[in-house]
Amino acid sequence: MIEVGIAMLQGARREHIISLQNAAQNLDIDVNIRQLRKSSDIDGINALILPGGESTAMKIASKNEDLLDGLWKYITDFNIPVLGTCAGAILLSQQGLISTSIVRNAFGRQKESFQSKIRIGYPQEDDFHGVFIRAPRFLKGSKNPIAWLGEEVVGVLEGKKMALTFHPELTNDYRFHEWLLNEVIE
Ligand code: GLN
Q: 104 CB less than 6 Å from ligand 1?
């Protein structure tokens, strides 16, 4: 039984839970999804999802129960696979858990949110439906790109940490959630 933690601070949490359930079904594996609210919830998770939403709100929501600091320590100690989408990608970058730097709200405000066909390199070269909501942008020189909007990198995979500036959990395409589960199985 694989235990996948989802940081339940704020943002698109239910959507990730549904995507993960579908990914588990596609791969025919048993997954227990653990909803993480406080640092004592973390022990024993095999993988982590950091949802999109508002990274500043997540940090404020984390203050009482110290969830984020607990997660950063756990990720560093156990090197578990992590999928961070949008605000989740921002947090990974700000923590130095991926080396690629990121700029928040870099496409503009809410009305500049958009959807677009993007290219992905995982699990093979293909198109993907990219949903960008007040999305951040990676700075140039990102290592190990795995997703592109035109020429621009919108997803990186560094070791076991995947950071995406778009929202796969708002589509019916579960390939990135399957990646997370496959990383645990391997
Ligand atoms: N703009 C948000 C932030 O700065 C990220 C947006 C998102 O997660 N969709 O945290």
A: yes
Q: Is 59 in the pocket of ligand 1 (CB under 6 A)?
A: no
84 lines ligand 1 (CB under 6 A): no
Partners of 117 in beta bridges = 129
Q: From the CA of 26, how far away is ligand 1's center (Å)? A: 29
pLDDT in tens, 108-135: 887 789 999 999 998 899 999 999 999 9
State the fold for domain 2-185: Rossmann fold (3.40.50)
> Could you tell me the residue ranges of all domains in the chain?
2-185
Strands 152-158 and 145-149, bridge-based pairing? antiparallel
Q: Give the burial class of 145: count Cβ atoms within 10 A of its Cβ; 0-12 exposed, 13-18 middle, 19 or more buried.
A: middle
pTM for the whole structure? 0.96
